[in-house]
Amino acid sequence: MSKGFLVSLEGPEGAGKTSVLEALLPILEEKGVEVLTTREPGGVLIGEKIRQVILDPSHTQMDPKTELLLYIASRRQHLVEKVLPALEAGKLVIMDRFIDSSVAYQGFGRGLDIDAIDWLNHFVTDGLKPDLTLYFDIEVEEGLARIAANSDREVNRLDLEGLDLHKKVRQGYLSLLEKEGNRIAKIDASLPLEQVVEATKTVLFERMGLAK
Description:
By secondary structure, the protein is an alpha/beta fold. Strands 2-3-1-4-5 form a five-stranded parallel sheet, sandwiched between helices. The longest helix is centred in the middle third of the chain and has 25 residues.
């Protein structure tokens, strides 16, 4: 690749983004694609420290605007320290969550002003958007049931939220999909993992111009 390619993975809780990514990495490596995987919030030391504050189950008193600004601060540090250098080096960067999460969770989920969130996202990214966003869609109840059945997965503060918030988050993602369908590709995450991986690979390879 002559320049980097930025992919973000999005979806409600329990959509299986991590499992799909783990299955995709060997396939991409076989193709000779240099890949950097990272996550939000986190990815770098400062970002991981902010992540601990955001997701600590004991921080139930956190104000929604505080939550948003912590995500935004982590995003900026992560971007300048890790993501942008990798893109400049021509790598494929795959991020587990990015700008759309703030719109879905803090905008639709928490009820904060969407325009303000869009402005903050633009401010901290200098207008950078993913070349492709893979949205893994799943019914909220099914996603939360997966989390409950997976004893190895960390249980964070957002997992403890009520069903209503998670339903609003999913509606937020579906709204973004309708608005930015050229950038966001919907993947049916309710299917068996092998089928989800294959569907994801098809979309990713097509957008990157790679032969299957």
